Amino acid sequence: MNRITSLxxxxxxxxxxxxxxxSGWKLASAVSNAGGLxxxxxxxxxxxTLREHIQKCKAATSKPxxxxxxxxxxxxxxxxxxxxxxxxxxxxxxGRQMLATMVLGAEGVQIGTRxxxxxxxxSHLSFKKAVINSKEGDTQLVMKKLTPVRLLKNGFYxxxxxxxxxxxxxxxxKRILGRARAKLGMYxxxxxxxxxxxxxxxxLVKDILPAGLIVKNIWQEFSDALVSPxxxxx
Length: 234
Known about the structure:
By secondary structure, the protein is an alpha/beta fold. The protein contains 10 helices and 7 strands. The chain has 2 domains: about 5-130 and about 205-225, Aldolase class I (TIM Barrel); about 135-185, no CATH class.
């Protein structure tokens, strides 16, 4: 269809985001088998765990898949003086939103939150249910002094929000964050004390579906919107 599909040898320019505690080999292989580009989220994995996920993903699909490895470049500007294909990310969960980004010049989309609510996502079922039951305004951007992240509002969010309101410094915020709070919430299912990272677009996600069906639905919505942008739903 375009440079993204040709570059990655995929059917649809739909890329599943590599999310910690959600994007394991099951989700990545399911998205790839459906024609998108599945991605293993390596941010929470030790090398041996990542190696195992890659091996299992290779066994589960013959299609291309990716591994998300977080990198921090202090001299980022030196690395971006080239023209590359643009993949839009953030706030995308429907085919109409996908079309909007591509009208603005993107050649593909990376989708995270919608795939959290998939059967293959490794995140806890309680977290998935919290996502599909969330409403507009149930998320908030916090921890701006550290690494800004959007959270579902719960006890942990309230603790962070109150600390920021009184001017907590980075050391205090790190102490509140502690270790493995994201794992506690998203992977182990502690909906009050755990960190629940999710996108604002969660308010549009209303069901837990197989990842392959999510890819097909988004592509169908995109195709319908491309033909009749004012009449299509999604």
